[in-house]
Every structure is written in C-alpha cells, then in structure tokens.
C-alpha cells in the first residue's frame, strides 16, 4: 500500500500499445524499471488491463486469452503466463481479451477479470485458477466489460460495459446474480469509469453527456435500489473518469473524447468549428459538509476516526452526503499546455477558494489545450 513514509511504495504503472510496461517514481517522475510482454511473433505487446495485487508485490496484466504476472522486483521479460482458456477453439474457461482487473479488498485472494467476450472471471490468487464466471442471460447481454471493482466489504462486484447505460452490481458471495443496475448515459465505446468511496457508501460515475452522478448505496429507495443523490452537469464533454480521494472530501473528474472533423459543403466553417469543440479538462471537486476519516487496518477492516473538517478540527456532526442543492460548486480555471506538474501546484495552493469566500466547497479546474 502506498505510504509517504515509505518512498519506495510511491509509484505507479503505465502501459501503451506495442510498448513495455513502465513503473514510475511518483516523486521524481522517472521510470524505475520496465516489464515487457512478448507475443508468439517476438513482438512487444501492450496489455489491455494492468493492476497491482493488494500487497503490491506483483503486477497483473490482461491480454487475449491470457493473464501475465510479473514479480515487481524482477523487471524484464520473465513472468508467469496464465491461460484463461485451454485453447482458442476450446469452449472452456474465459475467452477473449482480458480488458480489466481488480482485487477483492477483503484479502480473500479473489480477483476479477473482465473480458470483451462479455464475461467476468473470478480467480483465486493462490493458484490463479478460475473459480466461477459471471455472464449475462439469454434475455440480457452485459456487453464488453471495461471496468470491474469490488465493494469495500468484498461481498459485491460492480461492473460496466462498452455501449451500455448501466453499472451492474453482482452478488458474488451467494447467488452470483445481478442485484441491481445503476443508470447512466454510457452508449459509447469509450471507457467511462466509476469509483467507490472508502466507506462503501457512495458510487460516483461520469456519463457521456458530461454529467457527474452519485448514488447512495446505503440508504435505498422504496424499491430497495440505491438512490441517485446527485445528477449535475460537470463538463461540456463526456466524463471519462471519476476518482474519490481515499481520505479527503475530494472528487476528481476528467473529460474528453475523440472528435472527427466532418467535411460537408452544406455546413459553414463556423458550424464545423463548433462541431469539433472539445472539453479536455481535469476538475477537482470538494463537497460541502463534515467527513469521517477512515482507512483500512492490516486485517482489512475499515477504521473510522473522529469526524473532522478539512482543516483537521473536530466536529460534532457526522454527515457525509451529496445533494442537488449546490454542495459541489466551481472555483478557479487555469490553462495548461501539457504541464501536469501544475495540477499539484494548484491543488496545494491555499488561495484556491470559492467565489463567495466560503471554504465549504471548492474546485480546481485544469484545462488541457
């Protein structure tokens, strides 16, 4: 687990097509080492899915009909190949490109692998054997899986798919069935990611129409489904990723999608320019209210600290909520020419406050131009 007290743990992975996997130092911004996947033609293959296991000792990579595992302390080409199906013609196992991976936080050793063959495989980390497969029915297809994420207690699995308007919640402990579906506008081949907060109380997701949507997973509606507690326009383009800060009341969202310029004699030059306008930006949102600080213990349990505000002062209220009454608002806007370091500078700038002088809600806006 990443800790600022141990600089060796402050690192992250990146991959791209036909290039090795790079392990980056989060402090220096330099590549520590690389891991290479070579296919049967002796060519470099970039993985379609990439993640650490829970203790950070191994790297799991997904590609066609295969999961490859690298030991973190052994960079290079040496890794363990786990076939997800015995052969290309076999009907057994999990077929297709492994497009996403996630480990169960309950430390049971279970991990999930989503594929473009519209299946989710559950594997045992101790032997990397397939335990079960989650898939759609004759009446409902679940689509090509693009993200999987376990609930904080490890009892449920959330998944999303390409060209699909739902995030599905699976009961992986008992029936293996879909418990409920959370709606969003996701009818695109682009990956639109979601995230869960550390208490497991809220799920936040972006949508194709630029909205930020928050679902309350604890306080259900009359039908027993999570309530939509926030639905607001956050960007002027598709919201491709959402991430909740593990301890602070901050949410990051980013937007943008590939646009193609259409040449049409009946369309004026101004109309053409308007059609290709994009919102490629990163926004940091701060929700109003009081927050309980929490983290995971060594035993995997959630530990709740006394409730504090953002300055570390203790409060009596224990409210952690989102609503439609403007608890999330806009502050500053800056322009950025491919200089990611400015993001950290803006976040750490104590002068960033909302226009009305209140520090209850705040946003940093980074625009990529």
Automatic annotation (TrEMBL):
Signal peptide region: none
Tree of life domain: Eukaryota
What Gene3D superfamilies does UniProt report for this protein, alphabetically?
YVTN repeat-like/Quinoprotein amine dehydrogenase
Coiled-coil intervals: none
InterPro entries, sorted:
SWT21/TCAB1_mRNA_Telomere (IPR051150), WD40/YVTN_repeat-like_dom_sf (IPR015943), WD40_repeat_dom_sf (IPR036322), WD40_rpt (IPR001680)
Record the organism: Rhizophagus irregularis
Q: What name appears for this protein in its UniProt entry? A: WD40 repeat-like protein
Name of a matching Pfam family:
WD40
């Amino acid at each position: 687990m990443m800790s600022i007290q141990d600089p060796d743990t402050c690192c992250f992975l990146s991959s791209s097509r036909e290039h090795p996997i790079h392990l980056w130092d989060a402090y220096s911004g330099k590549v520590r080492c690389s891991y290479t996947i070579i296919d049967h033609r002796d060519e470099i293959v970039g993985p379609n899915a990439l993640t650490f296991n829970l203790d950070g000792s191994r790297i799991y990579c997904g590609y066609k009909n295969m999961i490859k595992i690298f030991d973190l302390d052994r960079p290079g080409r040496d890794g363990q190949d786990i076939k997800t199906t015995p052969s290309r013609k076999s009907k057994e196992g999990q077929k297709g490109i492994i497009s996403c991976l996630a480990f169960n936080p309950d430390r049971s050793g279970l991990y999930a692998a989503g594929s473009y063959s519209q299946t989710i495989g559950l594997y045992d980390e101790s032997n990397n054997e397939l335990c079960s497969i989650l898939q759609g029915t004759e009446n409902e297809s679940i689509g090509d899986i693009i993200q999987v994420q376990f609930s904080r207690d490890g009892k449920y699995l959330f998944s999303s798919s390409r060209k699909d308007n739902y995030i599905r919640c699976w009961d992986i402990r008992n029936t293996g069935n879909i418990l409920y579906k959370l709606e969003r506008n996701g009818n695109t081949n682009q990956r639109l990611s979601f995230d869960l907060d550390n208490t497991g109380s809220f799920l936040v997701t972006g949508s194709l129409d630029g909205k930020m949507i928050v679902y309350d997973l604890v306080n259900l509606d009359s039908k027993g489904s999570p309530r939509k507690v926030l639905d607001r326009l956050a960007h002027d383009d598709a919201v491709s990723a959402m991430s909740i800060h593990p301890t602070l009341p901050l949410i990051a969202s980013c937007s943008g999608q590939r646009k193609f310029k259409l040449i049409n004699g009946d369309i004026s030059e101004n109309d053409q320019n308007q059609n290709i306008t994009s919102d490629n930006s990163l926004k940091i949102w701060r929700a109003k209210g009081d927050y309980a600080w929490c983290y995971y213990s060594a035993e995997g349990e959630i530990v709740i600290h006394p409730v504090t505000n953002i300055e570390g002062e203790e409060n009596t209220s224990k409210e952690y909520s989102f609503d439609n009454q403007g608890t999330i608002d806009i502050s500053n806007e800056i322009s950025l020419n491919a200089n990611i370091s400015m993001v950290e500078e803006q976040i750490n700038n104590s002068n960033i406050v909302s226009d009305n002088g209140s520090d209850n809600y705040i946003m940093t806006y980074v625009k990529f131009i």
